[in-house]
Write a structure and sequence with these properties.
four-stranded mixed β-sheet, globular
């Protein structure tokens, strides 16, 4: 193992220990391949599975993994009209397993997310029976203020470019704290405690994944 890999593992253990105090369960996967295997272990035929928008899950071929496991996958991209989109969001809130990444995770074990439509953070906080957060160690920050800063500098600008949003940061690469119609920084949610034991599980991955 390289010094960086060893350091990631040590840091992950510290974070997961802190998460236990917050009623989260968690595990560490040293590689993306190991993370996929952990995801597979959570999937069972017949389960209804959905996910929030996530570059991390895309890099892990998440949809293909879910379908191969015999689960019913709720495909967000299948919506063709605003009404269909609302119906898919409604179905998602009642799914068995909801997967997402985190925009940032603090060393103290808090999850920090900034959302546009709010559907992703809504399902994190309430609705799906179980929630699984998969995040690379590049998402780790010292505390909540640095997590917010990370999202503004490292996550939101490239996400706006990816989604072809007409925002200042998609042009300048710098957050302008905007109120544009395409703003994706509309709702900020800090998950500091998991009220329902066993509901939120966090998989920390010892690689840089997503934005």
């Amino acid at each position: 193992m390289t010094p960086k890999e060893i350091s990631y593992e040590h840091l992950a253990r510290t974070i997961l220990k802190n998460m236990e105090k917050r009623n989260f369960t968690g595990s560490y996967a040293p590689t993306a391949e190991a993370a996929v295997e952990q995801v597979k272990a959570l999937l069972q035929p017949g389960l209804t599975v959905a996910n929030g928008g996530s570059m991390t899950l895309g890099e892990l071929s998440f949809q293909e993994t879910v379908e191969q496991a015999g689960c019913t996958y709720i495909d967000r991209a299948a919506a063709k009209t605003p009404q269909e989109k609302r119906e898919i969001y409604a179905r998602t809130t009642l799914c068995d397993l909801y997967f997402l990444s985190a925009n940032a995770i603090t060393v103290a074990g808090e999850l920090v997310n900034v959302d546009g439509n709010g559907n992703r953070v809504a399902c994190l906080t309430c609705g799906p029976e179980r929630v699984v957060v998969v995040a690379g160690m590049n998402k780790v920050c010292k505390d909540v203020p640095s997590a917010i800063e990370r999202i503004k500098v490292q996550a939101a600008p490239p996400n706006c470019v990816r989604l072809e949003m007409n925002t200042p940061c998609s042009v300048t690469g710098v957050c302008a704290d905007c109120h544009s119609e395409d703003c994706i920084c509309c709702a900020t949610v800090i998950t500091r405690h998991n009220r329902v034991p066993g509901r939120i599980h966090v998989i920390l991955v010892g690689e840089e994944l997503g934005f």
